[in-house]
């Protein structure tokens, strides 16, 4: 019954196929008869051999018809599927469904895009904040370095002033020591001079007294 339905579904194609098969069968049969007669002229085919060849030919014919029927059914199924699809695509329900899908996809893509924009913005702000922090830390480090350099310079200057003051103090002390030595030397020389003058004066006084005593004694002797 299934084969009958398939044959009714494509009678024109089946007729053409059968006509082609008959012609092919006749040609093959002629060729087979010629080749068999040329090979075995002395022996003619038996009834059993002819029946087997006919059965084989019928089997091939049947397979060919089934193949053609299957091809026709597949072609009609594809056409019907295409027609149904076109009708569905032309319907308002399908258009509404497509529009909904497009809108959903648009919203989905827009949401993804907004998330990507927010993520990019967040990364940019983080980068700006990081650079600002690095800049601030660099400025603070440079400020601290300048402060340390200033402190070092001030310390060095203070040390230099202390060294200079110490040198000045030592020079002043040396100068005072020399002046003191000179003063002491002058005082010593003055003391010596005074002592010499006193000694001279004493000697002179002693000599004068002796002379006055001598003058006084002479008249008394007379």
Question: What's the short story on this structure?
Answer:
This protein has 222 residues and is mainly alpha-helical.
Question: Which structural category fits the helices and strands?
Answer: mainly alpha
Summarize the main sheet. Answer: none
Radius of gyration: 73 Å
Q: pLDDT below 50 for ≥5 consecutive residues: which ranges?
A: 1-10, 38-42, 213-218
Mean pLDDT: 78
Q: What is the count of helical runs?
A: 4
* Beta strand count: 0
Q: Report the principal-axis shape.
A: rod-shaped
Helices and strands, in order, run as HHHH
- Classify the helix fraction into a percent range: over 70%
Spatial gap, N to C terminus: 216 Å
Strand content: under 5%
Task: Describe the model.
This protein is mainly α. It is 95% helix and 0% strand. It has four helices and no strands. Helix 1 crosses helix 3 and helix 2 runs antiparallel to helix 3. 1% of the residues are buried. This is Arginine and glutamate-rich protein 1. InterPro entries: ARGLU1. Pfam families: ARGLU.
Give the SSE map.
Layout: H1 2-9, H2 11-39, H3 47-90, H4 92-221
Features:
mainly alpha; single chain; ARGLU1; 222 residues
């Amino acid at each position: 019954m299934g084969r009958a339905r398939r044959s009714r579904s494509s009678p024109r194609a089946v007729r053409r196929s059968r006509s082609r098969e008959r012609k092919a069968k006749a040609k093959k049969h002629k060729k087979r008869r010629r080749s068999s007669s040329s090979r075995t002229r002395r022996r003619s085919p038996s009834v059993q051999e002819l029946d087997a060849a006919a059965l084989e030919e019928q089997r091939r014919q049947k397979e060919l018809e089934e193949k053609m029927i299957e091809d026709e059914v597949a072609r009609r199924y594809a056409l019907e599927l295409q027609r149904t699809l076109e009708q569905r695509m032309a319907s308002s329900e399908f258009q509404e469904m497509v529009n909904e899908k497009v809108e959903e996809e648009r919203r989905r893509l827009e949401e993804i895009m907004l998330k990507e924009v927010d993520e990019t913005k967040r990364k940019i702000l983080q980068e700006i904040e990081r650079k600002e922090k690095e800049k601030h830390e660099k400025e603070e480090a440079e400020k601290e370095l300048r402060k340390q350099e200033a402190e070092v310079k001030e310390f060095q200057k203070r040390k230099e002033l202390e060294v200079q003051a110490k040198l000045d103090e030592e020079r002043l002390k040396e100068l005072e020591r020399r002046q003191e030595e000179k003063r002491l030397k002058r005082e010593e020389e003055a003391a010596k001079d005074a002592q010499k003058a006193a000694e001279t004066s004493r000697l002179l006084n002693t000599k004068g007294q002796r002379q006055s005593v001598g003058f006084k004694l002479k008249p008394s002797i007379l």
